[in-house]
Amino acid sequence: MKILVIEDEENIQKLLYLNLTHEKFEVVQSFDGRDGLEKARTHVPDLIILDINLPSIDGIQVCKNLKQNERTRHIPVIMLSVRKEEIDRILGFEIGADDYVTKPFSPRELLLRVKAVLKRGNGEKQPFCTVGDVFLDESSFEVTAAGKPVILTPKEFYLLKYLMRNKGRVVSRDALLTHIWGYTTDVETRTIDAHVKSLRKKIISDTIAIKTVVGMGYKLTENV
Ligand code: CA
Description:
alpha/beta, 12 strands, 4-stranded antiparallel sheet, Arc Repressor Mutant, subunit A, 8 helices
């Protein structure tokens, strides 16, 4: 597995290099936005770790370019040094990063993120998924239920996506916190409950149900 790290701070590059190679990843380094974009196109890595503040082209622009380019669109991107108020935008359709880590981060935390994103990527080669008559398309950020468009917030969108990808399986609140709100978060579990409630209200379909599994979490099922 090849990982491209685009980060201008030498000490962080070094830290990531040591930790990633220790986990048997092949690492390609870039210290600059424009060079990073080029390396993404030539190396086509399995994952990109991308800092926001970079020389020549900033990380936000790099991520947008990556997600607009046919050759690099599918490569998952983890963004570094994201401010709280930026998170929705970073993960949203406009920028399209797959995950983020706020600085300062521990190498262990970042490695967990890398593995989680790569694992997620395996089952998610296609940008869309369908359960019952609910259709979700990541590339256009669209959801329809029984053919009618459903307007969701980014968090609701990613929550629904995660539940759909894990159809029939119980998903714990911890897993949802990890995948949608991030590890280093102080979001309370009732925030998740509120989002689920809102999803249930917005998705009008007899073909799926988001069930509460008491003491465990949630499960999205297809009604057959
Ligand atoms: Ca930087």
